[in-house]
Specification:
CATH superfamily: Regulatory factor, effector binding domain
Structural class: alpha+beta
Oligomer: single chain
Low-confidence stretches: none
Radius of gyration: 17 Å
CATH architecture: Alpha-Beta Barrel
Strand content: 25-35%
Number of helices: 5
Number of domains: 1
CATH class: Alpha Beta
Order of helices and strands: HHEHEEHEHEEE
């Protein structure tokens, strides 16, 4: 069986065009960690990413330890994603906000063979391998995102409002309304490593939930 690379298998989800488009999202399961603070400076955010990758690679490498779950298949660990909101109303991707007051859900997609039961076992294994991390912060999260508009943003994260404005114009032109609320949130998928990529070349999927007028 070939190794599954979600970015290649599901290009509609991970590789949209640099112009807005509609997508009906399936329910996807994630390993998720919640937190608050500026992602550029927050120790909590840094730890959250370490937790996510610790669990993700514990699952990916499980065959080497003979602990793989039923129906395991080879795969590439999917990209980091984030849901973002603020203390003063929902973050819509355009308003300038105090990044220290950001609330976030950081997450990585889980393969379909990961059950809730196996997820808890993977957490237990990851905690043994990485005792310095608070692995218990992680939880199994199913996200039913529904109908959305998305765009590929290329460039600095601080320049995202220009791409969001294009999305908002597309939403209005096609007689939809943005439907950001306490469940459906501003969503970003990080396809580039900012430590290794010039800001001008960063690629980020931006996705907003919508509904009909």
């Amino acid at each position: 069986m070939k190794k599954i690379d979600y970015k290649k298998e599901y290009k509609d989800i991970y590789m949209p065009a640099m112009k807005p488009s509609l997508i009906e999202m399936p329910v996807i399961q994630y390993v998720c960690v919640d937190g608050m603070g500026n992602p550029n400076t927050s120790p909590e955010y840094k730890e959250a990413l370490a937790i996510l990758y610790a669990i993700s690679y514990t699952i990916k490498m499980s065959p080497k330890k003979g602990t793989q779950p039923k129906d395991y298949f080879e795969y590439v660990v999917p990209p980091l994603e984030g849901l973002w909101f603020g203390e003063e109303g929902y973050f819509d991707g355009t308003r300038i906000v105090d990044k220290d007051k950001f609330h976030w859900k950081s997450m990585i997609r889980l393969p379909e063979f990961v059950t809730r039961e196996y997820f808890e076992e993977a957490k237990r294994q990851a905690a043994l391998q990485k005792p310095e991390l608070d692995i218990q912060k992680a939880y199994f999260f199913e996200y039913d995102e529904g109908l959305c508009v998305q765009i590929m943003h290329k460039g600095s994260y601080d320049d995202e409002p220009a791409s969001v404005q294009k999305m908002n114009q597309f939403i209005a032109d096609n007689h939809f309304l943005t439907d950001i609320n306490d469940i459906r949130l501003h969503h970003e998928i990080y396809l580039s490593d900012p430590r290794k990529t010039k800001q001008d070349n960063l690629k980020t999927v931006i996705r907003h939930p919508i509904r009909k007028k």
